[in-house]
Design brief:
The chain is α/β, with parallel strands linked by helices and 533 residues long.
């Protein structure tokens, strides 16, 4: 499928305004890797993977993400700090400057699609300035057969000019880099940054508008897997909560690790054709699937080699803590054919609560599920960022606020309805601290978290007794197979019970303070899911 060496199709970019470009169309991964190495833009590591540096930007820049405000978006997008409006005339002027910049240059073009379910398939053409950015898109988007390519018509276009720097005064951007979505022209325009994740998240953001508004399908920032009985499980969680780790289960097949849609037909499908995983402190023991996926065809970003070798030092974060690898999903052995699952039965909200307050597993009502979904809570620990000396709450609506064009309650209401229609169980999993906050307590053991998730998936918690948390009101199982009883209720793990109660109320207040901006848009059921004290 991936060998396009015999393709004779020729394309033109004149319709995009890119004139006289030398077009490298649908090159193979090997060709793109060879070009990157030959031009000095990357090197090969000890396993054959390509290693590149993305330049000034080693992560996304949320403050430089814009949406063109026009007749399609003006009354639907939740405008503000997350979704920053951009004038259509300003977009047109900037677009012309970018396409003029790419004219007369060598550019790399890839035709692909997103959404594994053919009923929701969206054709995408990507134009990049570098070969390795094109290889990233080969990995991350779904790959077309030769026959599909012959009859391909793009619906959306991604143009990424990493070397083009905007002039904020003239172009209307905040600074030199930008990522702009135009839903009328169906273009994602990216410039001034070499961070490849902007392309992936640009299309994800577009789908987060298109699917709920036009297809009545819920887009989700989550991982998903499927069991031997065909039961699908969904894992929501912010960075560091275990979303990738916990969805990689030897007893279950991976649908995808980051972006999915949940349809009216009660299926869950992957948006992507690959994985984009963090590799900080990666070891084969803890993350065998990711570790073994780093081979020919994969791209490592902003990693450092061990001295005098081309072997990656995964502990070296001197460039960034956001070291990454991109690879086709086929680099994982245990995957779900077609990247589609049916019959969702369990949803897991993952949080790394550094305060040590939330239970390691609890069951949520529909209202609580919507409330926690909108909240999207985890906590940063001391030392992860400059100036962070004690745990800090981190709320990201829908577990992916930077990519959600609509108001978070729209997604939450869709999720609540789908949960009820499909009779899905929703669990809150705390992969964070027990026995006290960060610095006093200890991180929940991975083997216990896996045992709790397995018990939930196997229905072993369906017949046990539950007790409600005094502050958050969530239901805590009193027993769980292969898990010590004493850790199930976090209050029992604290030496100072009164201090626990005090800190639990303080965390509940942080939830309430964060939720204040959503309150007027939330229905009674969602409001009833708030902490009770």
């Amino acid at each position: 499928m991936d060998n396009y060496a015999l393709i004779t199709k020729s394309i033109s970019l004149k319709e995009l305004g890119i004139e006289n470009a030398t077009i490298q169309y649908q090159l193979t991964p090997n060709e793109l890797q060879d070009i990157t190495i030959q031009t000095g833009q990357g090197v090969e590591n000890s396993t054959g993977a390509l290693a590149v540096l993305t330049g000034e930007f080693t992560g996304r820049s949320p403050q430089d993400r814009f949406i063109v405000k026009d007749s399609i978006t003006q009354d639907k997008v939740w405008w503000g700090k997350v979704n920053i409006p951009f004038e259509p005339t300003a977009f047109d002027a900037l677009y012309k400057k970018v396409t003029t910049y790419l004219s007369n240059k060598e550019v790399f073009v890839r035709d692909a699609y997103v959404c594994a379910d053919t009923n929701y398939k969206l054709n995408v053409r990507v134009v990049t300035e570098t070969a390795w950015a094109n290889l990233f898109c080969h990995n991350m988007f779904l790959r077309l057969t030769k026959e599909e390519l012959e009859h391909f018509t793009p619906e959306w276009t991604v143009i990424c000019a990493a070397g083009f720097v905007a002039d904020p005064v003239i172009d209307g951007t905040r600074q030199g880099n930008f990522a702009i979505l135009d839903f009328t022209k169906k273009i994602a325009l990216i410039g001034g940054t070499g961070y490849t994740g902007e392309m992936k998240k640009g299309i994800f953001s577009a789908l987060n508008f298109i699917l709920p508004v036009f297809k009545n399908t819920l887009p989700m920032h989550c991982s998903a897997n499927v069991g031997k009985n065909g039961d699908t499980a969904i894992f929501f969680g912010l960075s560091g909560t275990g979303k990738t780790t916990l969805s990689a289960d030897p007893e279950r097949k991976l649908i995808g690790d980051d972006e999915h849609g949940w349809t009216n037909e009660n299926t869950v499908f992957n948006f992507e054709g690959g994985c984009y995983a963090k590799v900080i402190n990666l070891t084969e023991e803890n993350e065998p699937d990711i570790f073994r996926a780093i081979k020919k065809g994969a791209i490592l970003e902003n990693i450092v080699f061990k001295s005098g070798t081309n072997e990656v030092d995964f502990e070296d974060v001197s460039i960034t803590q956001n070291t990454r690898v991109s690879y086709p999903i086929e680099h994982i052995d245990n995957i779900q054919p077609g990247s589609i699952g049916e019959n969702p039965k369990n949803i897991f909200f993952l949080t790394a609560d550094a305060y040590g307050i939330l239970p390691p597993i609890s069951k949520l009502t529909a209202g609580q599920a919507a409330y926690h979904f909108i909240s999207g809570y985890t906590a940063k620990v001391a030392g992860t960022e400059a100036g962070v000396t004690e745990p800090q709450p981190n709320f990201s609506a829908c577990f992916g606020a930077p990519f959600m064009p609509l108001h978070p309650t729209k997604y939450a209401e869709m999720l609540s309805k789908k949960m009820k229609d499909a009779n899905v169980k929703v669990w809150l999993i705390n992969t964070g601290w027990t026995g006290g906050p960060y610095g006093t307590g200890s991180r929940m053991k991975l083997k216990y978290t896996r045992a709790m998730i397995t018990a939930a998936l196997n229905g072993e918690l369906d017949t046990v007794a539950f007790v409600n948390h005094d502050v958050f009101g969530i239901a805590i199982p009193q027993v769980c197979p292969e898990v010590p009883i004493e850790i199930l209720n976090p209050r029992n793990t604290w030496e100072d019970k009164e201090l626990y109660d005090k800190k639990a109320s303080e965390l509940a207040q942080k939830f309430e303070d964060n939720f204040a901006k959503f309150k007027e848009f939330a229905n009674a059921e969602i409001l009833a899911g708030a902490p009770i004290a």
